Every structure is written in C-alpha cells, then in structure tokens.
Amino acid sequence: MKSEKKNQFNLIELAGDYSEILISLRRVGLSDYESKAYIALVAQGHGTAEEVARIGGIPRTSSYKTLESLRSKGFIRMNESRPALFYPVSPAELKKTITEAIGKAFDILENLHGVLSEKGMPQLVYTIMGKDKILAKIGEMLDGATARFFLSTPSMAPIRTLHSQRFREAVNRGVEVIIVAEPFVKVPDCTRVHRRSDLIATDVISDGRTALIASPDYSICGYSDNPFLVGHLEVFMLSPLHEAHPPEARS
Amino acid sequence: MKSEKKNQFNLIELAGDYSEILISLRRVGLSDYESKAYIALVAQGHGTAEEVARIGGIPRTSSYKTLESLRSKGFIRMNESRPALFYPVSPAELKKTITEAIGKAFDILENLHGVLSEKGMPQLVYTIMGKDKILAKIGEMLDGATARFFLSTPSMAPIRTLHSQRFREAVNRGVEVIIVAEPFVKVPDCTRVHRRSDLIATDVISDGRTALIASPDYSICGYSDNPFLVGHLEVFMLSPLHEAHPPEARS
DNA sequence: ACTTATGTCGCTTTGTTAGCTACAAGATTA
DNA sequence: TAATCTTGTAGCTAACAAAGCGACATAAGT
C-alpha cells in the first residue's frame, strides 16, 4: 500500500472531521440523516438501506425516505433490485456541481452589488408579490400614463382581460401605447405593436418615470420610480425596437 | 457607461434569476428572509433594518432577528449606530469562503471513498454515540483483552475513574497494557506509559481485533472489529511508539 | 406454511421559520 | 416639556420540516 494511500486513510482525523463534514453537508442542504447516510455510502462504496442505516447510525425504517430524498437531490443513485442497492455520487463530482452552482449564484449577486445604491438615487426598487397586486399595479401605471406607455410580456391574456378598457382610454387620451407581444397573440388597443418570440419577463414602463418587471407567471416583480433606473431601463428596452423591422401601426 | 457595465446591470435577468438566487442561498444555509435581506443589502450597498425590510419584502420587525442571524453567519457586518447600519460581505468574498469550506468537506469525503468497502471485509465500523455507551464499550474491550490493550487519550480521567479496577485486573492476568497520556496526567495500572502532548482523539485497540476511536469529548465514536481495519490502525498507532524515547516501564 | 427481510405508512414530538402584535426606549419635532 | 415618530425587542401563534419510531404489508427464503 503506497504511503500516500496510507496517509489518506485516517480514521483518527475522521472522528475529528466527522461533525465538520456533517456541518458542511447540512450547509449544502442535507438533513442530519441524509448527511450520515451519504457519508456511510461514500465509506462503504455501496450498500442496502439496512447497511446504510447501520453504518450511518440512523433508524432502519427512516433510511428509506432518507435515501429517496438523497436520490432526488442527486447525491446517490439506486439500483432497484431487492433489496435495493444504493451508490454514492462521487464527492469529487458533487463538489464540482455544487460549488459551481453556488459560485454562479454569488457571481450574479456580485453583479448586483450596489445597483440600488443610494448615491444620488433616493428612490428604490420595491418587491411586489402576488399576481393580483402586480396586475393591479400595472393598471395603476397605465391609468397614470400621460405621454408614453410600454408593455412587453410573454403572457398577454391576464393583462388584456383585466385592463382592456384602460388601454382604450389611454390611447384615446393621446398616450403612445407600445406593446411587444408574441406572434399571433391578441393585444389590447395600442399605438404600435411589435412581435417577438423570445420574451421571458413582463416589462412595463410608464412615462419613463415608473417601471415594473415581473416574472413570467406574475408571481413576483420589481417596481421602481427611481428616475435613473427607469430611464436606463427605458433605453435598454426601447433601443432594439428602433432597429427592428417596422411595427404594425395601429389606431 | 461602458457596454459591459450596461450588460452587467440587467433587472430583467434579475427577475428571472431572483428565485434561482434564493434557492442557492437557501442551499448555503440561509432562510428565505435571510436570503432576501442579503440580496437587498447587496443591491443597496448598505442600509438600515427598515430599508432592508422594505427592499427585501420582509416584515420590518422580523428584519432585526434576520439581520442578526446573517451577521452571526458571516454574511453581513453591522455598524452599531442608531439606527444600526448593515453592510453586505461581498458576494465574491463569500463565494470564496463558502465554496472552499464545501470543497474541503468533499475532499475529505473523497478520501473516505470506499474505505469501508465490503471487498473481502464483511465487518464494518459502527457508530456509537453517547459518552456512557462509549465508556462502557471501552470497558468491554478491556475486559475482553487477553494479550494486548492499547489506549491513547487526551482525556484520561473519565476512563480511569470508571475502569481503574478493570485495568488492574487486566495487568494481573498478563495483558500488556500500553497507555499514551498527556504529561503529568494520572494513569491507571498499566504495563507501559508514553507521554505525548499532541493527543486529539481517544484511540483504543484490544488484541488487534477490535478498535475504537472517539472524539475528545466522548460524544461520538467509530468502533470496529474488522480485522483489516484494526490491523492497519494498530500499525499506525504503535509504530511511532517504537521510535519514541523509551517509555516508563511499569508493574 | 412459517419465518425473516424489506419497504411503506402514519403517527408523535421537537425545532425552525414565517409573520405578526404589543410595547419599550430613543430621537425628533412642535 | 410633551407629543409623535422611529427603532428595536420580546413573545406569541401557525405552519412546516425533521427526528424517531411502531405497525404492518409484501416479498423472499427456509
């Protein structure tokens, strides 16, 4: 046995590291039972539920649900024999996928750093949750529009159903209503329509003063009346429209 | 504003990524409130509890406990003014520390891979928890020793208190009792004592057939009667004793 | 046919989180 | 100085998840 292999195997360190490993596995979303079961499988190489329970120190009848949860979380694989056999996904493989996913989230957050900073921008982005509230806010923004209203959404029906009257009134009072919708989707009254097939979120801008961005299912949105933010967003959203093929002129 | 900065700032992607970030932060041990509070602080740069609550969409009175928890978890720092000001630890910094800790745990697990494999070794390591059970097992191992008993521990008193009679009886029936203890620590009857000051875990080997390794506080241990494992451990534990300065001969 | 092994289900207990109200203390304003 | 507002703490309830176990059904082995 090569010396580096002897150095690798160290049950003494294991006793010391065991609770540290449990803490780390807890940190990546496993319960105590799941952590113990996973460690047992790694140490054993593979095993039945009864073996995992015994090695890991968890109750046998609890081990079945524990192992099913581990499987659904991608930590282990199973062979549906009788008794079922379980195999760990290698720690090296899990390290890669888990640290990459966590790293990606922090990278996104890093880009977010200071975005809503108060430096010269007192207004903030408000989180609104709940489809009813979000659709109501869109209605308020439409009613409040005096010059220009922009809407881009992959899910037009809820807005059209609820606010078709408001769209008509806005067009009638001279608001330039610009809508970006998916092909063949019925739209409410408006000044211009653009058709795109790659819409992913609902975006609303009213008079370049207020803006709202909602998830596709309207479950959550960010709303802002921050002039810098809204102005920036308006440029971002409207620039591509000037470069696209001419829109359908309406009303 | 340089184009790459414009690309960085993307509230549209934020709406889409927001729940993904929440999931990832949940994965590294934050509750929903903590995740939302942290995201709000990252976006805002810094803020009061009231601001964090408003931006993050959590109840104001809940935000104090949430922020205190984030602080204790190392995600944010606070300035104890009135009102208190909170600052996020940068996502880049957290990414580094969290992925390193997780990576280290998986590295330890990788070394553990297959250690208890059944290939030719039917016996296993059993986890025993609870000081009483562990001390009782040590007593059983001592009573069962016929030729050689090895004990190394940074915490001798509990074993001496409970098992001094057993040590005497073992020595009297001809068992070679080898003890490794810290300097100046009183030891029970034995054949040889070695003094070391770097002991970290309690290690017991009986006749080269059974072995036990316990955490320093006796809260958890691994016990094995696997001949390969115990034999390997015995070599590991006893080799350094042959190279050390001569032990105190006893009895 | 009986026994053992395997697996599922449902229950209780405990702990955590979400969410809120009540209220005290400090700061600000009139 | 008194009133009001802001900040912060404490404690409560409800919901949910996890720990832990017993009862029991089914499959496999003897």
What order do the helices and strands of chain A follow? HHHEHHEEHEHEHEEEEEHE
CATH class of the largest domain in chain A: Alpha Beta
**Helix-strand category of chain A:** alpha+beta
At CATH's second level, what is the architecture of the largest domain in chain A?
Answer: 2-Layer Sandwich
- Unreliably modeled segments of chain A: 1-15, 118-124
Name the CATH superfamily classification of the largest domain in chain A: Endonuclease Chain A
Strand content of chain A: 15-25%
The pair of chains with the biggest contact is: A-B, 79 and 77 residues
Kindly report the CATH topology of the largest domain in chain A: Endonuclease, Chain A
Strand order within the widest sheet of chain A?
4-10-9-8-5-6-7-11
Please, how many domains of chain A?
2
End-to-end span of chain A in angstroms?
Answer: 84 Å
What does this molecule look like?
The structure is a homodimer of 251-residue chains. Chain A has 251 residues and is an alpha+beta fold. The first copy, chain A, is 50% helix and 19% strand. Chain A has helices at 3-8, 11-27, 32-44, 49-56, 60-72, 91-112, 131-144, 157-172, 227-243; strands spanning 47-48, 76-79, 85-88, 125-129, 148-152, 176-181, 192-195, 202-206, 210-214, 220-224, 248-249. Chain A is elongated and about 75 Å long. Chains A and B meet through helix 2, helix 3, helix 4, helix 6 and strand 4 of A and helix 2, helix 3, helix 4, helix 6 and strand 3 of B. Chain A binds a DNA duplex (30 and 30 nucleotides) through helix 5.
